[in-house]
Automatic annotation (TrEMBL):
Coiled-coil region(s): none
Name of this protein: Guanidinium exporter
TM region positions: 27-46, 58-79, 85-103
Record flagged with keyword Transmembrane helix: yes
Subcellular location: Cell membrane
Any one GO molecular function term: transmembrane transporter activity
Membrane topology, from the record: Multi-pass membrane protein
Top-level taxon in the UniProt lineage: Bacteria
Presence of keyword S-adenosyl-L-methionine: no
Cellular component, GO annotation: plasma membrane
Recorded family membership: Belongs to the drug/metabolite transporter (DMT) superfamily. Small multidrug resistance (SMR) (TC 2.A.7.1) family. Gdx/SugE subfamily.
GO biological process, one term: xenobiotic detoxification by transmembrane export across the plasma membrane
Amino acid sequence: MAWVYIVLAGILETVWAFYMKKSAGFTVVGPSVVTIVTMIMSFALLSIAMRSLPLGTAYTVWTGIGAVGAFGVGVVVLGESATPLRLIAALLIVSGILLMKLASPSE
């Protein structure tokens, strides 16, 4: 179940990163509220996952999902560039997440 929590926490990290961008430095109320609520939810799920996952694994997977998710949202929704180098970097992050999963003890 910890892996489900960590994946959900990573997805919520992507959500709060997007809405933080939309909040324009916390000057727009709606996106600011979504940012804060999803941050709290993301941290809560991360903390639950850390009860049984090693610190390094949980944190790496959480930030990796958030980073790749934010990159994807930036490209698809915000029209940011998807240069070959940026795509390779995202692929390397995903590879690192998968290796962390494979290297972690089973729950």
